[in-house]
């Protein structure tokens, strides 16, 4: 399949005619629907309600949100415009606390905006930078894919959890980018996707995307990870990340820790694929805020109730996988291996 076709058909977030176009991921896999926004508040809402999700995609969406904010602003001076942008930045930043890329995308735009002298110049700088961040995301994913593909062998069956594919990024993907690059290098591979309860990103998004691109993909319930590994159905695991701290602790979709623990038990290599923008060198693992989501994601599917009324629900969106369970962290600058406190900072010095 022609890669350009894949890139363009599943372009998760895009800037067109001064509007932000997104795939509405809440409608997948039943419908491939594109939504159009011209107000940064709509983008904030889209991030909050998971119309767009996946750390890299959220980072770029935040940047595009600020690009809309500069167009919406009635400011006539630089100070007024920066003040309007600050308001928009706060609203966008408050949407998802765990993914580090959102703060990265917003901060990058704010820094650039402050270098502009006039209102017009700031507007141009912000829009151009946001568009370039989207293009860079695809190039970064392709570099990451190449670096990761050498870790996988012909005829491997690779397990992945949640969706770290084209739909979690601008296009191509992180963990699925590695899987795509492995196939592009001529190796024959199969994929096992976990359903990823309670939002079903694995069944709705990963399975949809891999089937769309002609991969041999099988879907399993989250509870069958141990079974699949114990029965020799899996050779390797690759997942994405929403935040990685410098000690090598990885924050990713809830259930990742269980997959990693099970992989360790069965001697299966467990890799994480993420761009450097997902790595947070400042925060300690214990200080990362784990987003808690609404109970109704667990007590029903759509309008169908699957639990008793008024039941207590604990619904964390993410969990933490400790570094001793991780075989390597694949980035666009190379693969970091333990001890991560030494290898992760080195990636930032690589040219």
From TrEMBL:
Where do the catalytic residues lie? Answer: 242 (proton donor)
Keyword entries, A-Z: Amino-acid biosynthesis, Isomerase, Methionine biosynthesis
Binding, substrate: 53-55, 96, 201, 252-253
Site feature (Transition state stabilizer) residues: 162
What Enzyme Commission number does this protein have? 5.3.1.23
One Gene Ontology BP term is: L-methionine salvage from methylthioadenosine
**GO MF terms on file?**
S-methyl-5-thioribose-1-phosphate isomerase activity
A Pfam short name: IF-2B
Mind telling me which InterPro entries this protein's record contains?
A: IF-2B-related, IF-M1Pi, IF_2B-like_C, Initiation_fac_2B_a/b/d, M1Pi_N, NagB/RpiA_transferase-like
Q: Which reaction does it catalyse?
A: 5-(methylsulfanyl)-alpha-D-ribose 1-phosphate = 5-(methylsulfanyl)-D-ribulose 1-phosphate
Which family is annotated? Answer: Belongs to the EIF-2B alpha/beta/delta subunits family. MtnA subfamily.
Q: Which function does this protein serve?
A: Catalyzes the interconversion of methylthioribose-1-phosphate (MTR-1-P) into methylthioribulose-1-phosphate (MTRu-1-P).
* Protein's UniProt name: Putative methylthioribose-1-phosphate isomerase
Q: Supply the source organism for this entry.
A: Nitrosopumilus zosterae
